[in-house]
Specification:
By secondary structure, the chain is of the alpha+beta class. The chain is built from 26 helices and 15 strands. The strands form 3 sheets. Strands 1, 2, 4, 5, 6, 7 and 8 form a 7-stranded antiparallel sheet that branches. The chain has a 5-stranded mixed sheet with strand order 12-13-3-14-15, sandwiched between helices. A hairpin with a 5-residue loop joins β14 and β15 (1298-1304). The protein is elongated, with a radius of gyration of 65 Å.
Length: 1309
């Protein structure tokens, strides 16, 4: 049950930031009175701002704060304080502050920290807006929603007709009042929660199904494990029985083997001796076949064998040294190959850097192409060398510096020009302000004079005596004297009835005249709106003519330069369009020619690029062919010291073909040579002589040489070596033949290079000449474009001149129409003349009525009070004296009024003079502002254009610098030299490896030769050893023959075979049992493994499956119940909201209907009501609202069907009804100018209704009605003195700042 107590305003709109104004609000009524523009509505705006934080409509940019220009400050602080009370013991003071700062060309508004002071039972606390949200805290403390404060309690005058707004806006307002969004969000949250629970239920059902599957699997797993345990126990019994049978079979087989082994030793010894005899016989034959039988004794052979040992030892030592040297070569080769791998890796890294370097070069060229195209820099479209790249860098740097200087100069020139224009405007504005202040002061003085004149007129009206009344009193006095002398005679001769009839006829004539004047006043009032409209149209016409004069004087020179000096406002639009079209055509023609030239340039560049690309590909193909040929030549002849050349290829092919032919001949004759050498060996073995020369060999040494030669000739490895050499030569020849087309291509490409270079040189010369031509045409196009843009910049000005001229013609036509209508009407006097005639007629009527009354009284007095004539004479004498005094007082009032009227005339002359001066200054200011705005706009366009060009150049320069930095970094690191050094190191290592491999091959050849010598020595040594072995073998054979004869005589083989057969039977039985045991054991093992796996699976996955299934099932059931409960709760909440909405709408319509029927005085509308139509969208209910009027039980929409006064009255009544229904916690409502557009009857009726409302609710402790109006008659109809003793008057002081003064209620009631 809150109520507001005091409001303090400082620095808001017309309220001074220095003098704080305070107003205290009373219960049940607070009146605020003031003329238009005094600042009354600002009080409502401050109340709304301090409670809700919402600024008034159209107050952006600091319009809500006192203008700093009016107080001569750069910064103004505005503050609004509100004190309100919440029973029983809580007092709040909320403070909101704003700051407005004037900058050079803009204003900056800033919201400062707000404070909420709380005093609860003497305990004070302060809270900052940084801690709490004042927009929420203050309405909460007041006990009413922000929407009610905004749209009902503190509704702004500009928005007071919101109940008549369009349906969407009306729906938004009522939704905010009913706080529909909050309840809608609650229902949505319930639905979202239900949806989430439904999603959880689906997941839980899936989980329940999975858990049920796991539970079933667990049951199956348990059953299977028990079955496996039983099967394993059965297999274990079978395993034990088979083990016992196997042990018996093994024992029997062992016993049979032991008995057979006793005979087997004899058999084995016999067999062994036979085998040994056969071996010795075979050995004897082999030894005899490979040896030369010698006749010397065993002693001589042994001595000769001893002499060969020393020679073999010497060969062995030399062989060891060669092997050691070979190991050193291998180490050197491994180290060289390791170094080679490192250098190869290094070469890969260097090649990667080179590839990156080449990519950067390509990126630089692409960037230069793009930048050249973007910034219209010609001559850099094709391939670019370092000279062109450097030239492009220098050119872009120069262009960037030029653009920077151009922008700086342009900014300086624009700033200086704008400063000059602003100084001119400031001077004109100061003159305008001075004249405006003079005009305002004059108007204020006129207002004061009018107030004084009204007071004097009121005092004059209070004087009821005039000269006629005094004359009547004099005549009455004389009559009384005469009647006193001759009472009886005068009574008989006075003829009072005739006089009374005459006076009554005169009174009827005066009343008829007064009625006629009233009708004439009504007609004059009707025509007054036409006169006001005529004045408005004339004022608009003057303003438009002044605007047209300003535009023509401002742009006359420029327009003459553009379209000719004979232009007129009536035809300027058509002439301008014609000239602009010609400029567009000129620009398009120059652009078309430029584009054609550019296309020719692109064609030349394309041809040049194609030639360069072909040349590049030709060079690459030449290098590729050369590399392939040289690589094949190096492979074919790796031992060549001089680097090969491409023209060597035919000679190398011929050499390989000859070598292949020779090898093929040798291989073809190899079989014939082999047959010949086989015949030589046969002759040598048989006859110990040479087949070719028929010479016998006397010594073993000569024979060994021929044997070695024959063996070498008969070896199959020689043929294989020749085939390997043939295959190698054929492979090399194949490689050389494969690169022969590359060799031919290389020769052809070299011959074509000269023509290609000449074509590229001619293309570059054509490109340079064409680039120069395109640049010249670019300048022409830019000039045409600038001319076209200059014309287009004047499009708005030309349109404004043409439109203003058309508006002037329309305004002149309207003025002529209104004037003709007034001239066609009959001559009607002004309302002031009619009021003067009415006042004169009323004064005469009062005189006549006084005469009639006097005559009646005289007649009655003469009839009834004849004895009191002397007393009447005395009384008339006093009245005459009093009338004389009243007439003197009236004359003084009339003189004062005339003096005030003379002062008003002087002030009006001063206003006319100020208006005249302002009329002269306004075009100058408009012209200066137009020139300033045009200058500023053109300057900004030029600055923006130059700045964009500068930024684009800067970006291109920076990006090119980054690319050049990477390229230079590669060169500074010595990338090419490092790569070349790495290549040289690799070549050196490759040569070293080849040298080591050659040394190793030579060493291998020497080692093989030593081995061959050792092998030959070994042949002679072996021959001696074979002779000694042969003789020993003959002796051993004789010994074994005697032993075999002795063993055969024992006959042990039959016994052994019988016992061995029995042993094998028992072993077969044992093997079968062992297989059965293995099968059983394998089955047991697999079942054990299966059982272990089942147990592990049970422990891992299924041990808690039943419990988990039970828990999941419980969750599913509880979630289903929760979803049902949420659905019921959401439905209950929705029904409750709909019921609450229906009750509130019923209450609001009831109150609005009662207020309408008691207030509206017309007969066309019985009552009004708010219709709320429910609709269901996206599963929830919403309402559409409309205000309806009812006539004879028929409902119609008020919007679009009612008058302005009906709209105002309906809006006020709806706000009163909403305040009474929704504002129980804060019984406050403010009405700002409630009589707008209402006629006298409805104003009186509204006042009486408000009086009744206050009378009914004044018992409510927190009921507060704030009425803001300029209509004092409305206040008299409200009988405000019944509820308050004072009111607040808002007016402007001599500094034009609003002030709030408290005055007695008797001044307006």
């Amino acid at each position: 049950m809150s109520k507001i107590d005091k409001l303090s305003i400082s620095g808001v709109r017309s309220f001074s930031p220095i003098d704080r104004q305070t107003i205290q609000f009373h219960t049940p009524l607070t009146l605020i009175v003031g003329c238009n523009g005094s600042g009354k509505t600002t009080i409502i705006e401050c109340l709304k701002y301090v409670t809700t934080g919402e600024l008034p409509p159209n107050s952006k940019g600091g319009a809500f704060i006192h203008d700093p220009k009016l107080c001569g400050e750069r910064e103004v602080l505005a503050q609004v304080k509100l004190k309100f009370i919440v029973p029983p013991e809580t007092t709040y003071v909320v403070t909101r502050s704003l700051q407005l700062t004037m900058k050079k060309t803009t204003r900056s508004q800033k919201t400062l920290e707000g404070i909420l002071l709380t005093n609860y039972a003497g305990e004070k606390s302060s809270t900052s807006s940084k801690v709490i949200d004042l927009d929420t805290a203050v309405p909460t403390a007041l006990g009413v929603g922000s929407a009610i404060l905004d749209a009902v309690i503190f509704c702004h005058q500009d928005e007071s007709l919101w109940p008549m707004s369009e349906p969407s806006a009306l729906k938004k307002r009522f939704d905010e009042i009913f706080e529909a969004m909050k309840y809608t969000k609650a229902i949505d949250n319930l639905k979202m929660l239900k949806k989430r629970q439904g999603e959880d239920l689906q997941k839980l059902k899936i989980l329940e199904g999975q858990e049920k599957v796991n539970k079933d699997k667990a049951d199956k797993c348990e059953k299977r494990a028990k079955a496996l345990e039983a099967e394993i126990e059965g297999l274990r019994g079978n395993y034990d029985a088979a083990e016992k049978e196997k042990e018996v079979a093994d024992e029997n087989a062992l016993e049979m083997h032991q008995q057979a082994n006793s005979f087997l030793n004899i058999v084995n010894e016999l067999n062994s001796s036979k085998r040994e005899l056969g071996y010795l016989q075979q050995k004897l034959e082999e030894t005899r076949s490979r040896m030369d039988e010698m006749d010397e004794s065993d002693g001589w052979l042994e001595d000769t064998l001893a002499q060969y040992e020393d020679r073999v030892t010497r060969y062995g030592q030399e062989l060891d040294e060669n092997i050691k040297q070979y190991g050193q070569y291998q180490k050197e080769l491994s180290g060289s190959r390791r170094d080679m791998d490192e250098k190869l890796a290094e070469r890969g890294m260097r090649q990667s850097d080179k590839a990156k370097y080449e990519r950067q070069l390509a990126s630089r060229i692409e960037h230069i192409h793009q930048a050249a195209q973007l910034h219209s820099i010609r001559g850099f479209d094709g391939d670019l060398d370092d000279r062109k790249v450097q030239a492009f860098q220098e050119r872009t740097q120069k262009l960037l510096a030029d653009k920077k200087r151009e922008l700086e100069n342009l900014q300086t020139e624009n700033a200086e020009e704008l400063d000059n224009k602003r100084a001119i405007i400031a001077d004109l504005e100061s003159q305008k302000t001075r004249h405006s202040q003079n005009r305002v002061f004059a108007r204020q003085e006129i207002g004061k004079i009018e107030k004084r004149t009204a007071a004097l007129q009121k005092n004059l009206s209070s004087v009821e005596v005039d000269e006629g009344s005094k004359a009547l009193l004099d005549s009455s006095f004389k009559d009384v004297e005469e009647r006193l002398k001759q009472t009886t005679q005068d009574l008989q001769n006075s003829d009072f009835d005739t006089k009374l009839q005459r006076e009554e006829g005169r009174l009827q004539q005066l009343e008829a005249e007064n009625s006629r004047l009233g009708r004439e006043l009504v007609e004059s009032t009707r025509l007054l709106s036409d006169r006001a409209q005529l004045d408005v149209r004339k004022t608009e016409l003057t303003e438009k003519k002044r605007k047209l004069d300003t535009l023509t004087s401002t742009w006359s020179e420029k327009m003459s330069n553009m379209v000719g000096s004979s232009w007129k406002p009536s035809t300027i639009d058509r002439e301008f369009q014609n000239v602009l079209q010609s400029k567009n055509q000129a620009y398009e023609e120059s652009a078309r020619k430029r584009d054609d030239t550019v296309q020719q340039l692109k064609q030349i560049q394309f041809t040049l690029s194609s030639s360069q690309e072909k040349a590049k590909k030709r060079n690459e193909e030449t290098e590729r062919c050369k590399t392939a040929v040289l690589k094949a030549l190096k492979t074919a002849d790796p031992t060549c010291e001089k680097p090969p050349t491409v023209d060597k290829l035919p000679k190398e092919i011929k050499r390989l073909q000859e070598a292949i032919l020779t090898l093929e001949t040798d291989i073809a004759l190899f079989e014939h040579m082999k047959g010949y050498y086989q015949g030589c060996q046969k002759v040598l073995d048989t006859h110990n002589r040479c087949r070719l020369c028929d010479r016998t060999f006397a010594t073993a040494n000569d024979k060994s040489r021929i044997i070695r030669k024959i063996n070498e000739a008969l070896q199959d490895t020689k043929r294989e070596d020749m085939q390997a050499d043939l295959a190698e030569f054929e492979e090399l020849l194949k490689d050389l033949l494969a690169v022969r087309p590359q060799s031919e291509s290389y020769a052809r490409l070299v011959s074509e290079k000269e023509d290609s270079d000449r074509e590229i040189r001619v293309g570059k010369e054509r490109e340079e000449s064409m680039v120069q031509r395109v640049e010249e045409m670019d300048e022409v196009v830019r000039g045409k474009l600038d001319e076209k843009q200059d014309f287009e910049s004047m499009r708005k000005t030309v349109h404004a001149i043409s439109q203003t001229y058309n508006e002037i013609e329309e305004a002149e036509a309207q003025v002529e129409r209104i004037m003709s209508q007034q001239q066609s009407s009959s001559a009607v006097r002004s309302t002031q003349d009619i009021h003067e005639l009415q006042d004169k007629c009323a004064e005469q009527m009062r005189a006549v009525k006084n005469d009639i009354s006097k005559l009646s009284n005289d007649r009655q007095r003469m009839r009834d009070l004849l004895n009191s004539l002397e007393l009447e004479q005395s009384r008339l004498s006093n009245r005459i004296k009093d009338a004389a005094r009243q007439l003197e007082k009236k004359k003084g009032f009339q003189d004062q009024i005339q003096t005030q009227r003379d002062d008003v005339s002087k002030q009006k002359e001063a206003i006319q003079e100020a208006d005249k001066e302002l009329g002269l200054i306004e075009p100058e200011i408009s012209k200066a502002k137009t020139i300033r705005d045009d200058t500023q706009q053109r300057g900004r366009v030029k600055e923006k254009k130059v700045a964009e060009e500068r930024d684009g150049l800067a970006a291109s320069v920076n990006e090119l610098k980054l690319i050049n930095s990477d390229i230079q970094d590669y060169l500074d690191r010595g990338g090419p030299s490092l790569l070349a050094a790495t290549e040289r190191a690799i070549q050196s290592l490759d040569n070293g490896i080849k040298r080591i491999e050659k040394d190793m091959n030579d060493l291998t050849a020497r080692t093989n030769k030593i081995k061959e010598e050792i092998g030959n020595s070994e042949v002679r040594r072996k021959n001696i050893i074979d002779n000694l072995t042969y003789r020993k073998t003959l002796r051993d054979i004789e010994k074994f023959r005697r032993n075999i004869a002795e063993l055969e005589s024992r006959n042990a083989n039959d016994d052994y075979e019988r016992l061995d057969l029995e042993a094998r039977n028992w072993e077969s039985r044992s093997h079968k049992l062992n297989a059965d045991i293995g099968l059983i054991k394998g089955t047991m093992t697999s079942k054990d493994e299966e059982l272990r796996r089942l147990l592990l699976e049970w422990e891992t996955d299924y041990e808690n499956a039943a419990q988990q299934y039970r828990e999941t099932h419980i969750k599913v059931e509880t979630t289903k119940a929760a979803i049902e409960d949420l659905g019921k709760y959401g439905m209950a909440l929705s029904n409750a909201i709909m019921r609450y909405h229906a009750l509130k709408m019923e209450e609001v319509n009831r109150i609005a209907g009662e207020l309408w029927q008691s207030t509206y005085q017309g007969t066309d509308i019985d009552t009004i009501l708010i219709k709320s139509d429910s609709e269901v969208t996206t599963g929830r209910s919403s309402y559409n609202y409309r205000v309806c009027m009812v006539k004879q039980d028929t409902e119609m929409d008020m919007r679009g069907r009612c008058s302005a006064g009906q709209k105002v009255l309906a809006s006020i009544i709806i706000r009163l009804a909403l305040a009474e229904s929704f504002g129980i916690g804060c019984g406050l409502i403010a009405l700002d100018e409630p009589t707008t557009n209402l006629d006298r009857d409805n104003i009186r009726s509204l006042a009486e209704s408000l009086h009744a409302i206050i009378q009914a609710r004044k018992a409510q402790a927190n009921f507060q009605l704030i009425v803001i109006t300029h209509d004092e008659e409305f206040l008299r109809h409200m009988r405000c003195s019944d509820f308050c003793d004072s009111f607040y008057r808002v007016e402007r002081n001599d500094k034009q700042n609003s002030t709030i003064d408290r005055e007695d209620i008797s001044k307006v009631v």
